[in-house]
Amino acid sequence: MTFQDLLNLYEEKKKKYGIEAYRHISELLIEAKEMHKSDWLKNPTPKKDHEQSWKGFKGNNLEKLIVHIIKDEVESLGLKIVKGSKLDRTKPQNLSEELSKVKRAVSVNYGEWGLHLPDADIIIYDPRILKVVAILSSKSTLRERIAETGYWKIKLSQDAVTKDIKVLFVTPDEDDTLAVKKPTKKGRAIVEVDTDGSYVMSETTVEESSKVKMFDKFITDLRLLINNGSVNKK
Known about the structure:
Rossmann fold
């Protein structure tokens, strides 16, 4: 199975559900897993079972799918998207001047221990002034990385150069961590206190707050962010 197969499934959801297609990402991933398993069984990976193989494919391609979904609208706002892995894995001498400056603008300063990139799947920046607007982490459940996301928000906020960068989480929330406000699950508490917010791509309509919203609010909030610097308004 390839990323193009995943895109084809998403386009089928768009035809069926229109602008509500984002609510069916988990459904799409279930279908994709079956296709992936069928292909894997034809050529099993030595020393790695299907679940391990699927987890790697799912993580990498969920990120790509989110980029695909938001790219046109992000660019319509005059912004650009770059994957964090591109900045992290490309040798400095092979980065363009623009991306080199973006990498510097988002790096966390550890003093004598140097500058290091935060763990960010997706970086959104303004190419006109080379300012990083937001970093996004994307996982199917919060337990996979939400505490790390909160950590990076704290680190970025401690430096004058990076303090305005918004740290956001995008997720299908497959374990319903964000579904209700009370009783509050640990993952939701971290989102509410230690991040700039999370956008949920699920069939379940979550109880929204200024920090937890359905994914259809993402572009609206991004527009607010570049206009007045705030996404935390209901």
